[in-house]
């Protein structure tokens, strides 16, 4: 073989190799060639496939046929300035297919230069990156959505984040506002800084045990602000788990329920007061019933005596005894009317009471019963003649004292009732 034949053979090999490269490029890439003015002179099948134009529709056009309008004019001008200077341009382009659908291509544009070093055509080699770009757009969309959720949470809730050890790593403005601590004062501390000591240790232990297991905890917490005031928060603590399913931080989302809790405490106090007042009312009814029964029995006995007596003078004397009993009964009714305004003990006015005078008035209502059972009643209030106490209650005490002594006396012997008072602690007792 001559040297010329060998050169021709080598040339054929080079042409074959170049042809193979072009074939590989056509099979693997989206290929287009434009002349110096940007007019398309060649496209491969992949270009037609992704742009959804036929080769005939593309040839003779420039790349505005697939312009999506996504990129700025400055971006496109920079592209053309680069390749016009004979330099390679690389970048990502968003194009639009014939049916209007967008697609992304990773693009390398290589200028082919003439012997003067000027571009006479441009070869654009592209690869389809639409799925990747759609994925990135979807990711950005999700990130924006998450950012919006976080903004909404920060605006509406009291938020704090702690690490695995419970150290505060983040607080939002609402947390600082309700706790009255600055962000710098909170970060690096644990939640004991706002501990009100209201909840028992077992309650707090259950909270930490729950979230340490990776479970969500929900409940109501009473905390203490920097100025010592208390506030209530409805709380949800969400553990963030690592790839091993272990919490690496906790996000606490709270809402202020202080006013609601104050309302509940007020209602609870009102219920206790109502229960106390109801008990007072029942006690009062019992006292009134007891106090009314004695004078009524007395009157009944006097009337029986009048009906059974034939002596007019004796009837007149007995009837004269009824009036003081009736007056005593009226006094009891006056107390009843006054006491219908149910009030707490602290609201009942105390007055200075002469025990001797008060007991004498009480005994009028029992006169008939005392005579009937031949009871001997004596009293000695020399040591403590006065007490400072509510009038109606001392009346009730003395009435019950006499009434019970008469009611439960021994049938075997006459009743002797001695009533005395002592200093310091006033004690009324009978024997």
What does this structure look like?
A hairpin with a 5-residue loop joins β8 (217-224) and β9 (230-241). The relative contact order is 0.05. The strands form 4 sheets. This protein has a 5-stranded antiparallel β-sheet, sandwiched between helices. It has a 5-stranded antiparallel β-sheet with strand order 7-6-10-9-8, with helices on both faces. α9 packs antiparallel against α10 (312-339) and α11 (355-364) crosses α13 (391-407). The protein is of the alpha+beta class and 431 residues long. It contains 13 helices and 15 strands. The chain is rod-shaped, with a radius of gyration of 53 Å. The model has no long low-confidence stretch (mean pLDDT 88).
List keywords for this structure.
431 residues, alpha+beta, 15 strands, rod-shaped
Distance between the termini: 156 Å
Individual helix count: 13
Question: How would you state the average pLDDT, rounded?
Answer: 88
Residue share in helix: 40-55%
Uncertain stretches: none
Strand content: 15-25%
Number of strands: 15
């Amino acid at each position: 073989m001559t040297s010329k034949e060998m050169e021709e053979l080598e040339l054929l090999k080079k042409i074959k190799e170049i042809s193979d490269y072009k074939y590989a490029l056509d099979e693997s890439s989206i290929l287009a060639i434009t002349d110096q003015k940007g007019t398309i002179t060649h496209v491969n099948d992949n270009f037609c496939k992704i742009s959804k134009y036929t080769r005939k529709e593309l040839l003779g056009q420039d790349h505005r046929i697939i312009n999506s309008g996504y990129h700025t004019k400055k971006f496109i001008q920079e592209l053309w300035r680069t390749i016009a200077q004979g330099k390679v341009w690389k970048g990502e382009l968003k194009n639009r297919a014939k049916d209007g659908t967008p697609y992304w291509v990773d693009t390398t544009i290589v200028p082919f230069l003439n012997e003067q070093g000027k571009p006479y055509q441009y070869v654009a080699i592209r690869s389809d990156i639409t799925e990747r770009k759609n994925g990135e757009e979807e990711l950005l969309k999700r990130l924006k959505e998450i950012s919006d959720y976080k903004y909404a949470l920060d605006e509406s809730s009291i938020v704090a984040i702690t690490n695995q050890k419970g150290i505060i790593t983040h607080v939002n403005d609402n947390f600082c506002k309700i706790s009255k601590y600055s962000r710098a004062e909170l970060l690096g501390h644990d939640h004991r800084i706002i501990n009100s000591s209201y909840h028992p240790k077992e309650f707090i232990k259950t909270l930490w045990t729950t979230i340490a297991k990776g479970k969500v905890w929900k409940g109501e917490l009473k905390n203490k602000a920097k100025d010592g005031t208390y506030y209530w928060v409805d709380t949800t603590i969400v553990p963030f788990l690592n790839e091993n399913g272990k919490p690496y931080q906790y996000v606490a989302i709270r809402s202020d329920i202080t006013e609601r809790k104050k309302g509940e405490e007020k209602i609870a106090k009102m219920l206790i007061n109502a229960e106390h007042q109801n008990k007072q009312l029942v006690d009062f009814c019992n006292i009134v019933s007891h106090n009314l029964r004695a004078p009524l029995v007395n009157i009944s006995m006097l009337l029986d005596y009048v009906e059974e007596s034939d002596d007019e003078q004796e009837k007149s004397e007995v009837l004269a005894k009824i009036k003081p009993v009736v007056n005593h009964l009226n006094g009891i009714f006056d107390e009843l009317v006054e006491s219908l305004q149910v009030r707490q003990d602290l609201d009942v006015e105390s007055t200075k009471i002469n025990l001797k005078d008060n007991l004498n008035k009480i005994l009028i209502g029992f006169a008939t019963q005392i005579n009937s059972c031949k009871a001997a009643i004596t009293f000695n209030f020399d040591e403590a003649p006065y007490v400072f106490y509510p009038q109606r209650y001392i009346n009730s005490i003395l009435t019950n004292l006499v009434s019970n002594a008469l009611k439960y006396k021994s049938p075997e012997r006459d009743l002797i009732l001695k009533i005395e008072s002592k200093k310091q602690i006033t004690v009324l007792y009978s024997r």
